[in-house]
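Reply to dn_fold:

You asked what the input looked like. This is it:
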Amino acid sequence: MNTNFQTISIDGLDIFYREAGNKENPTILLLHGFPTSSHMFRNLITQLAEHFHLVAPDYPGFGNSSMPTVNEFDYTFDHLADVMEKFTEALELSKYSLYVMDYGAPIGFRLATKHPERVETLIVQNGNAYEEGLHDFWEPVKAYWHDRSTENADKLRQTFMLDATKWQYLNGAHNPQAISPDNWNIDQPLLDRAGNNEIQLALFYSYRSNPPLYPQWQEYFRKYQPPTLVVWGKNDFIFPAEGAHPYKQDLNTIEFHLLDTGHFALEEECETIATHIRRFVPAHIA
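and this is what came back:
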């Protein structure tokens, strides 16, 4: 089944999205991570399109969506979530399962806590909602939260370089030869666009707004009990498996899988994750 590549105007921004599958089928909203875009879901969409309606947007500043400068757009997770909320409403997505990964988690959980009635199930892949999930990788970022100095910013700029982008894909992979270089060859030129480093620094700084919301998200889990499928690359250095286990404390209906791969688990375990989704989501939609 073909994927359609489309653009919609939200608040004057062109928001690019991939869409596939019959709209009469259950919808899955796929929210990507850093430093990639909806491109990370390309293979999963193909695997699931026969059974679901798939929608995968690019955030402002990412992928094929508009990239206003930091002076033209407030790059915060609150603002990205606001744009994504308006995006779902423009597409009339009144009910959906929510697939969150990396940056997709703080964006998606903002949507879920604001509109719990819209979320039918959660699919969590290396997306954090607990203090236990912020380890060594985050120390330079936390330093930037406390002191937004040029020195601390320059340390983070290394994260936007090619070697770091490749590392995000290859670190923790059980078979690095299976990871296509197309990933970083697509992501890196987008990171290298003039002004994009400033966008990513703004979002690193804004990430400090997420941990204070963890209790609110956890209360959402406990109160609304969305059926949740956890499919987590257990070798991830950015969001290690310590951040996956706490979901089991708050959710009654949870299926939990640690996969032998790294941060971008879909690159090695797409078929496994797709199989779990095809079984789990229909079984838990009323």
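Strands lie at 4-10, 13-20, 27-31, 53-57, 96-100, 119-124, 228-233, 254-259.
Hope that clears it up.
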